[in-house]
Amino acid sequence: MARRWNMSHIPDQTGRLAVVTGANSGLGYVTARELARRGARVILACRDKDRGAAAVARLHSELPASEIELRTLDLADLASVRAFADELAATRLDLLINNAGVMALPHRRTADGFEMQFGTNHLGHFALTGLLLPALLATPGARVVTVSSGFHALADVDLTDLNYERNRYRRWIAYARSKSANLLFTHELAARLGGAGSDVLAVAAHPGYADTNLQTAGVRMEGRTRAERYAALGNRLVAQPAEAGALPSLCAATAPGMRPDAFLGPQGGLRGAPAPSFRARRTTDDATSEALWAASEQLTGVTYDFTSPAPA
Description:
Elements: E1 17-21, H1 26-37, E2 41-46, H2 49-62, E3 67-72, H3 78-88, E4 95-98, H4 116-137, E5 143-147, H5 171-195, E6 201-205, H6 214-221, H7 225-237, H8 242-245, H9 247-254, E7 263-266, E8 274-276, H10 286-300
Helix pairs in contact: 3-4, 4-5, 4-10, 5-10, 6-7
């Protein structure tokens, strides 16, 4: 990886297929755009069909020759996740960018009854990756990039109360736990891929403090106008633009020499070029990652099969 890695270092992606979740805005949009700019066929996996269509139109205006497709995906609904995977029906998949997420929401439940942040940020992506695993296994050099957060350091997963059914809900702790779950998932996925002799690479990234709509979504849902204004002001004064925030994900997805279970973020923590990031030691604990994996398979009903690549 180049010392000051930037978008000019993204290698040619011609002939590759990429799925980017949450690609209608922010980091996901930039990630999809830059992969398409370098020749990849990119599928925008978006919850809102209208916003997704607007993103596709914008991308085509910026990159008229790009291969961009829109598919509907609601990570907070396992039926939608299964429908997306069935509709995709890909026999190969080079890149899966698990980018979509929610942050610090008031207490909500997914369509399947999971706490919204854990259900969307972790369980939705866990199910999606498992359902697309045969296509990934059939593709030499495929990668799964899962977007976590520096906020993961605030809290570990609580294996006794993954869905906040016993304890008082605290939005930032719930967010931190979901982001720790992203890293534990990456750790366990990398180990299982390695154990199966696959060259599919599982890595993680975080954007630092990037200017996206995540910071304002939760307070907007509650009608907290003043808090929304403060969050927006913080974005303008402190955050780096989405173009910079997407760099760790793009680097994790495309840079040569990436190691399994790597975790990239801005070298300054909040801002800067991609570099290996601080990671709480508990997110590489084998016993915890194995227990979370087992719980995730049970909750989603998705069992990973590392022996069955998609038929050609």
